[in-house]
Design brief:
Distance between the termini of chain A: 45 Å
Structural class of chain A: alpha+beta
Strand content of chain A: 25-35%
CATH topology of the largest domain in chain A: Alpha-Beta Plaits
CATH superfamily of the largest domain in chain A: Pseudouridine synthase I, catalytic domain, N-terminal subdomain
CATH class of the largest domain in chain A: Alpha Beta
Helix content of chain B: 25-40%
Strand order of the largest sheet of chain B: 2-1-3-4-5-6
CATH topology of the domain at 6-237 in chain B: Rossmann fold
Structural class of chain B: alpha/beta
Number of domains of chain A: 2
Oligomer: heterodimer
Helix content of chain A: 10-25%
CATH architecture of the largest domain in chain A: 2-Layer Sandwich
Radius of gyration of chain A: 21 Å
C-alpha cells in the first residue's frame, strides 16, 4: 500500500458502506457522449449534488463508480447502469432526485436500488436495441434481416483504437423483428407498411433486436454492417440506435431488470 | 427567428471524431430566445473545442453579454477538417454550439485571438459561415467581425479579414459596442456598414483597420499609418478593467461534456504583472497589477465549485504566488475545503515567491501534482537580459525542500533563441537540471526523483522591449537544443531522471511572422489557408513548407520576406505596424528597457519599488490595485442538499 510520506496529508477517505445501483438514460444530442464523457459528467454531478461518494485511497483519489456495458458514442440509451459506492447509508429516493437535478439535461436518472448480490455485472448478459432506419422500406429491412438470421455466422470487422477486431454478429443476435413508422409518425405493422413501398424516402423501418453481450460486444453499428454484408443494405442516412433494456435473458427471451423488484423510480 | 442547423448537422455527427464537441449542452451554457434581444453576439474561439472551451476570456464575455437584457451571446469553436469536409459537402454553415444557429445570422462575431497560429482557422470559420473573407466585400447584412485577445494588440496581419479589434480588457468594451450596434440598428442602419464602422471607431479601445491607410518606404518599412476620416482617432488606447471585485466573472463556469485541456474551475486572482520579464507580452500589455481581494477570491471559488462540480480550482494570474495575500488565500481555501477532495492549483508560480508552506496548502485536500517553475534562461547572464531574476540558489533550495516533503517531480520551463543568447547560456540548463536531481536525491533520501525540462523557442512580440529584436532562426534553436540534449545525457548518473521536451523551431518562426507582421502578411495567411492550412498550432497539421512558399510568393515581390519580418533586428526609428495601438507603455521606456536588456541591466517591480515611468498608469488613467486587505477567509458553511435528508448510520 501507498506509504504516507512526510508532510503528506493522510488520505482521509472513509470506506464504502453501501452501493447504490442506478439506471439512467442518454438522450437526444447527448447520445454523442462517449462513455468517458458520461463518466466525467457523473463524477461532477455527484460532487455538485453532495452525494457522499466513497473515494479510492492513495495519491490520486478517485470516486468509486462501477460501470457496466456502456452504450457506444452516438447511440442513445434508456437503460445504462452504474453502481456508486457511498460512505454512508441513505435512501435511494433523495439521491436519485439530487443526482438527476445535477446532471445535464439529456443524462436522466430513471431508477435506483440498493446493491444486493449478485454483482451488477452478473445481472446483465443482453441488450434490447431499437434501430431506426429512415429512408429504408420495412420490406427491404425484413429481407436483409431474414438473410442474416438464416446464416450460421456473419463476421464483420470493426476498426477500434486497438486495431481491427472481428465480431460474429449472428452469434450474438438472439432475436430481431421489424416494424415501421408511418408517414404520420405512428408505428404500424410491417405488413401494412410494406404495401406502400412506392415512396421509400418517407419510410422509416424500425428494427428491434435482442443482442447477447459477448466479448467483444456487438454494437448496433455491427448489426448494420452485417445487414450490408449479407444483403447489401446501406441506409441512405445514418441510422439512430437506442438501447431500451439491459438484463439477464430469461427462458422466454425477455430481459430481467438488473435493479430487481425493490427499486425507486424518478419523478413517479 | 433564424433557423437551427442542428438537424442537418446531426446526420453528419456519426461520421466524425469526437462528435460531443459540436453538440453544446454544457452545464451552465445559456440559450436566450433569438427574438428577445436587439444585438446578437457569436463568440468564436478559432481553435479546437477542447482548447477553446476553458478559455476564460470567452466565458467572461459570454456571461457579461448574456446578463444584458438587450443582447445574447452564443459560442462557436473551430471544426476539425473531418467535419469541415462534410459541412461543405452537405451545405451546412458554421454554427454556434449553443443554439446551432448559423454564424452569418449574428450581428457581431467576437473572435478571441489568443494565438497567432489560429489565424487560418478564423478564415475557415468565416468561409464556412458564408461571410466574405475580406472586410471590404461585406455588406450591411454581414456580421461585424471583431477581434479581441492578446494577439489583437497587433491585428495588422488579419486587418483585411476583420472589421474591428477591441484592444485590452473586454468586460466594458463589449457593452459599449453593443450600445453602438443597437442604436445603429434602431435608427434603421443609417449610412450602411461604413457608418457603423465609423461609429465603432469612436468607441474607446476599438480599432477599425479599414479606416487607416498604411504607406510603405520603398525598402520595406512602414512610412506612416494615418486615419482616413476626422472622426477616427490617430491612436487607439487599450481598455483597462479596474476593481476586479466588481467583475466576478465567470460566475458559473462552463462545464464541458467533452474532455478539454483544463479540467478545472479557474478564478483569476489578479490581472496584470509588473515583474517586467522582457519577453512576456502578457505582462507588458496587461499592466497595471489589479488584485482581486481575499474575500472576492473566496466568493468566486465558492460560486465556481458549487456551480461546476469541478474537483480542482486553478488560481489564475500571470504569477499567482505574487498575490499580496497568497498565503492567506491558500490557507483559507484549504481550511474551507478540508476533506472534500477539492484541490487548488497555482498554474504560474515564480520560484522566488514560492515556499513549501504554499505547496502544502494547495495540495492539502486533493491531488499532489508535480511542481512547475519557469527559470526561462539557463544562465544567470541570460536571466538578467530577460529580466527574470530568479536565482539558481532559490530554485535548488525550493526543489530540495519539495523533494524532502515527498514531491517527486519538478517541471522546469525554459526558452531558447533569446536575444544575445549563446550556446553556453543554453548548455547551462543541463547543469541546472543535474544539480536539481543531485540536490533532490540528497533531500529525499532516495534516487526516485524526477525533473522534466521543457524548452520553447522564443518569439519576439509587439509591445515588449524585445519588439525590436531579431528572432533566432529555427536552425540555430534546433542546433542549440541538440547540444543541450547531449550535455544533459553526458552525466549518465543523473540523466535517467531527466526528461527533456522541446518542439522544433519552425512553427515559432511562423508565429513570429504573424506576431510582428503588418498588413502585407494577410496575403500569406490567405494563401496558406487556400492551400489547405488549418490548425497551424497543432504539429500534426502545421506545414512549414506551405508557409515558406506562400511567404515567398506574397512578400518577395514587395521587397520584404519571411526573414525580413522575423530574423531582422529593427532600429529605433522604424515605424512598427502596431505603433498606432497604445498599450500604455511609453515607446521611449520600452526602448530604454531594450538597451538595458542588451547591457544586462535589471529592472525592479513597481509594486515594491518606486515607479519607473513605464507610462501605463497615466496613459490609461489607472493605478496599481494591490492588498493586503489584512482580513482572513471565514469558514464556509457548506450546504449539502443531501446532508439534511439522509439517514446517517
Amino acid at each position: 500500500m501507498a506509504r504516507v510520506r512526510p508532510g503528506e496529508a493522510a488520505n482521509p477517505a472513509p470506506p464504502t458502506v453501501v452501493r447504490v445501483r442506478i439506471r439512467f438514460a442518454k438522450r437526444g444530442r447527448l447520445r454523442f457522449l462517449s462513455h468517458r464523457d458520461v463518466a466525467r459528467s457523473f463524477e461532477r454531478a455527484i460532487r455538485r449534488a453532495g452525494v457522499p461518494v466513497a473515494h479510492s485511497h492513495g495519491f490520486n483519489p478517485h470516486p468509486r463508480l462501477s460501470w457496466v456495458g456502456a452504450a457506444p458514442t452516438g447511440a442513445a440509451s434508456e437503460a445504462e447502469y452504474v453502481e456508486i459506492g457511498l460512505t454512508r447509508s441513505m435512501e435511494p429516493g433523495p439521491l436519485v432526485a439530487a443526482l438527476d437535478a445535477a446532471l445535464p439535461a439529456g443524462i436522466d436518472v430513471l431508477a435506483a436500488a440498493i446493491g444486493e448480490p449478485p454483482p451488477l455485472a452478473e445481472r446483465i448478459d443482453a441488450s434490447r436495441w431499437t434501430i431506426e432506419l429512415p429512408g429504408v422500406a420495412p420490406a427491404q429491412l425484413r429481407a436483409a434481416l431474414d438473410a442474416l438470421l438464416a446464416a450460421d455466422t456473419v463476421v464483420v470487422e470493426r476498426i477500434t483504437p486497438g486495431g481491427r477486431r472481428q465480431v460474429d454478429v449472428r452469434a450474438a443476435l438472439v432475436d430481431a423483428e421489424v416494424s415501421a413508422r408511418a408517414p404520420g409518425g405512428g408505428v404500424v405493422e410491417s405488413g401494412v407498411a410494406a404495401s406502400s413501398a412506392a415512396a421509400p424516402a418517407r419510410h422509416c423501418a424500425i428494427m428491434s433486436a435482442v443482442v447477447r453481450q459477448l466479448t467483444p460486444a456487438v454494437r448496433p453499428d455491427d448489426v448494420l454492417s452485417a445487414l450490408d454484408l449479407v444483403a447489401g443494405l446501406v441506409p441512405p442516412v445514418p441510422a439512430k440506435a437506442t438501447r431500451t433494456a439491459q438484463g439477464l435473458l430469461d427462458d422466454r427471451g425477455d430481459l430481467v431488470d438488473p435493479l430487481g423488484a425493490v427499486r425507486v423510480t424518478a419523478r413517479g | 427567428m433564424t433557423t437551427d442547423v442542428f438537424s442537418a448537422l446531426e446526420a453528419l455527427l456519426p461520421r466524425v471524431a469526437k462528435p460531443v464537441q459540436y453538440v453544446g449542452g454544457e452545464l451552465n451554457a445559456q440559450l436566450k430566445p433569438w427574438d428577445s434581444v436587439d444585438v446578437r453576439w457569436a463568440l468564436m474561439y478559432p481553435d479546437a473545442y477542447e482548447v477553446g472551451l476553458p478559455n476564460q476570456g470567452v466565458m467572461i464575455l459570454y456571461e457579461v453579454l448574456n446578463e444584458r437584457s438587450d443582447a445574447l451571446a452564443e459560442r462557436a469553436y473551430a471544426v476539425w477538417p473531418d467535419l469541415e469536409a462534410l459541412m461543405r459537402e452537405h451545405g451546412v454553415p458554421a454554427f454556434t454550439v449553443d443554439g446551432h444557429r448559423p454564424l452569418g445570422a449574428f450581428d457581431v462575431i467576437g473572435v478571441s485571438l489568443s494565438t497567432e497560429l489560429g489565424y487560418t482557422n478564423l478564415l475557415t470559420s468565416l468561409d464556412l459561415a458564408g461571410i466574405p473573407l475580406h472586410a471590404t466585400d461585406r455588406t450591411v447584412d454581414d456580421p461585424v467581425v471583431l477581434a479581441g485577445g492578446h494577439a489583437a494588440f497587433n491585428p495588422e496581419p488579419v486587418a483585411e479579414f476583420i472589421d474591428a479589434a477591441a484592444i485590452g480588457d473586454g468586460e466594458e468594451i463589449v457593452g459599449d459596442i453593443t450600445d453602438v450596434v443597437a442604436a445603429w440598428k434602431a435608427e434603421g442602419r443609417p449610412g450602411g456598414r461604413r457608418e457603423l464602422l465609423l461609429r465603432l471607431a469612436g468607441v474607446e479601445g476599438c480599432y477599425v483597420p479599414a479606416l487607416y491607410t498604411v504607406r510603405y518606404h520603398p525598402d520595406g518599412p512602414i512610412e506612416a499609418v494615418e486615419p482616413v476620416d476626422d472622426r477616427v482617432p490617430a491612436t487607439v488606447t487599450k481598455r483597462t478593467t479596474t476593481d476586479l471585485d466588481a467583475w466576478p466573472y465567470p460566475k458559473a463556469p462552463l462545464v464541458p461534456l467533452a474532455e478539454t485541456v483544463h479540467e478545472r474551475a479557474s478564478v483569476e486572482i489578479f490581472r496584470g504583472c509588473t515583474r517586467g520579464c522582457r519577453f512576456c507580452q502578457a505582462g507588458m500589455i496587461t499592466r497595471p497589477v489589479r488584485e482581486r481581494s481575499l474575500a472576492g477570491v473566496g466568493e468566486m471559488v465558492d460560486a465556481a465549485v458549487r456551480a461546476s462540480g469541478f474537483d480542482e480550482v486553478g488560481l489564475l494570474s500571470l504569477s499567482s504566488a505574487d498575490h499580496s495575500e497568497i498565503a492567506e488565500i491558500t490557507k483559507g481555501l484549504a481550511d474551507r475545503y478540508e476533506g472534500t477532495n477539492t484541490s487548488l492549483s497555482l498554474p504560474s508560480t515564480r520560484v522566488d515567491a514560492f515556499n513549501i508552506d504554499l505547496a502544502n496548502e494547495i495540495s492539502r485536500n486533493g491531488r499532489r501534482s508535480g511542481l512547475t517553475f519557469a527559470p526561462e534562461g539557463g544562465s544567470e547572464r541570460i536571466r538578467r537580459v530577460i529580466n527574470k531574476m530568479v536565482s539558481e540558489e532559490d530554485l535548488i533550495r525550493t526543489v530540495s525542500e519539495a523533494f524532502a516533503q515527498g514531491w517527486r517531480q519538478v517541471k522546469l520551463y525554459f526558452m531558447c533563441g533569446l536575444p544575445t543568447e549563446t550556446d553556453d547560456d543554453v548548455l547551462e540548463i543541463a547543469g541546472m537540471a543535474h544539480r536539481v536531481i543531485r540536490a533532490g536525491r540528497a533531500a529525499a533520501g532516495h534516487n526516485d526523483v524526477r525533473t522534466t525540462i521543457s524548452i520553447g523557442g522564443f518569439v519576439p512580440k509587439p509591445h515588449t522591449p524585445f519588439q525590436w529584436a531579431a528572432q533566432a532562426h529555427p536552425d540555430v534553436v534546433d542546433g542549440r537544443l541538440r547540444k543541450l540534449r547531449a550535455a544533459v545525457n553526458a552525466d549518465r548518473k543523473v540523466a535517467r531522471n531527466i526528461g527533456m521536451r522541446y518542439h522544433d523551431g519552425q512553427p515559432s518562426l511562423i508565429e513570429g511572422l504573424l506576431a510582428r507582421g503588418d498588413r502585407r502578411v494577410g496575403a500569406v495567411i490567405e494563401r496558406v489557408w487556400r492551400a489547405g492550412g488549418r490548425f497551424d498550432g497543432w504539429s500534426e497539421h502545421f506545414d512549414f513548407a506551405r508557409w515558406t512558399a506562400a511567404a515567398a510568393t506574397e512578400l518577395e515581390p514587395l521587397g520584404v520576406s519571411l526573414e525580413w519580418f522575423t530574423t531582422r533586428e529593427r532600429d529605433r526609428n522604424e515605424v512598427l505596424p502596431w505603433d498606432h495601438l497604445d498599450s500604455g507603455l511609453e515607446r521611449d521606456w520600452l526602448w530604454a528597457d531594450w538597451e538595458d536588456a542588451l547591457a544586462g541591466q535589471e529592472q525592479d517591480d513597481c509594486r515594491w519599488t518606486p515607479c519607473f515611468d513605464c507610462g501605463v498608469c497615466p496613459a490609461t488613467g489607472t493605478e496599481i490595485e494591490v492588498g493586503p486587505s489584512g482580513s482572513t477567509l471565514l469558514p464556509l458553511t457548506v450546504l449539502n442538499p443531501l446532508a439534511a435528508r439522509s439517514d446517517v448510520n
